[in-house]
């Protein structure tokens, strides 16, 4: 679970740095401002405030790593199934970028890729 959340956080961080394939930075700034302005938010360390602001986008890729939308497929098929599910869950068009996409890079990496489920 922690690895999946870490992966989700790395992916959305890369999306934010590159502004691709979805521009989510514009949504994070108002959320972060609300967190900082809230009385309870002032007691939260800055790094955790950022994680709270990015939480909705972080959880979706993390959940898809734990329970991928496609099983027993190669990374390209898993990537296409995952981006389609991301579009649905995040209610926005996720432009597939192929090998340029940080998500594709993560799904291609055997350390980040979810284990394949056995077929019967």
For the record, give the distance between the C-alpha atoms at the N and C termini, rounded to a whole number: 26 Å
Largest sheet: none
What share of the residues lie within helices? 55-70%
Return the string of H and E elements. Answer: HHHHHH
Tell me the strand percentage band. Answer: under 5%
Look at the structure and give the mean pLDDT: 79
> How many beta-strand elements?
0
Walk me through the structure.
This protein is mostly helical and 120 residues long. It has helices at 2-18, 25-37, 46-53, 55-66, 75-90, 102-108. The protein is elongated and about 45 Å long.
Record keyword descriptors for this entry:
mainly alpha; 120 residues; 61% helix
Please render the helix and strand layout as text.
Layout: H1 2-18, H2 25-37, H3 46-53, H4 55-66, H5 75-90, H6 102-108
Helix pairs in contact: 1-4, 2-3, 4-5, 5-6
